[in-house]
Description:
There is one protein chain. This protein is α+β, with helices and mostly antiparallel strands. It folds into two domains: 22-221, Alpha-lytic protease prodomain-like, CATH 1.20.1510; 226-309, Cation efflux protein, cytoplasmic domain (Alpha-Beta Plaits), CATH 3.30.70.1350. It has ten helices and four strands. It has helices at 2-8, 25-53, 56-81, 97-125, 132-155, 160-187, 194-221, 231-239, 274-289, 301-309; strands at residues 14-17, 244-256, 259-268, 291-300. A four-stranded mixed β-sheet has the order 1-4-3-2. A hairpin with a 2-residue loop joins β2 and β3. α2 (25-53) packs antiparallel against α5 (132-155), α3 packs antiparallel against α6 and α6 packs antiparallel against α7 (194-221). It starts with a helix and ends in a 6-residue tail after the last helix. Residues 1-12 and 18-26 have low confidence and may be disordered. The chain crosses the membrane at residues 32-53, 65-82, 102-121, 133-153, 165-190, 196-214.
Amino acid sequence: MNEMTEHKHDHSHAHDHSHGAHSHSHGSGKTLFFALIFTTAFAVVEVFGGLMANSLALLSDAGHMFTDSLSLGVGAFSAWLANKPASRQHSFGFQRAEVLGALFNVIFMFLVIVYIGYEAILRMLDTPEVNGATVLLVGGLGLLVNIIVAWVLMRGEQDMNVRGALLHVMGDLLGSVAAVAAGAIIYFGGPAIMDPILSLFVCLLILVSAVRLLRAVTRVLMEGVPQGIDPTEVSQALTQIDGVHAVHDLHIWSLSSNSHALAAHVDLDHMSQWQATLPQMQSTLRERFGIAHSTLQPEDAALRMACVVEAGCGA
């Protein structure tokens, strides 16, 4: 009994601190930084155009582009920060900075939604004159800018930051289409009320993006299993490796949007197999599930089963 208990607490821990995902962060950072400069510059132009034309559709699209600029900025900053080495005080590095930045981004997006919604309702009750030609021109330029930014992002390194930024830019494309539609309707004699109506449509796009981003941030902060990873599938993949009897106490969580971690106990048929089994498990986790940081504790399957049968051994 004492021998079993003593052995149970004498397990070594194997760690895989591979940071291969970070090798791409520098390239994605450049892509995101270019998109950030391009998007922010035109958002400023769109603000001036919206004020000159008295168009809420242009101003709301500019607000959407500013929120996207924040997203791009967070992505570029986190890509740069991911290259920073871990320290004694920050053993995982600064990867969670991306999540905190995203949380700020969500809060800002909701504030923009409230402002645009409030202004749209006021303008629907008392619709001002809108310069349709200016709205059409600036909206058309915005559509062109969004197409260029989307093209740049699609050609860049397709990590989670870039894919998330691309999702926002696609929303911008629809927002620019709404601004162009409002400008065209008003320019050809349609009612000016179409401007606040279509601005509400853009507001809805921002709301959808904000809710999606909030769900992703909440999942990471609550240590939830990363999207697209099934713990049952991970456990089955590991138990298919020769020498692995079972996997238990399995935990999977995210350090950032593109960095995942795992901790688990591994029951082996024979403890002598550990040196050969460990690299296979780490390779499976990295290549099949994108989990670069893993902590695996080996245990003797026969001794563990004996502990389960023995009364009080598992206490």
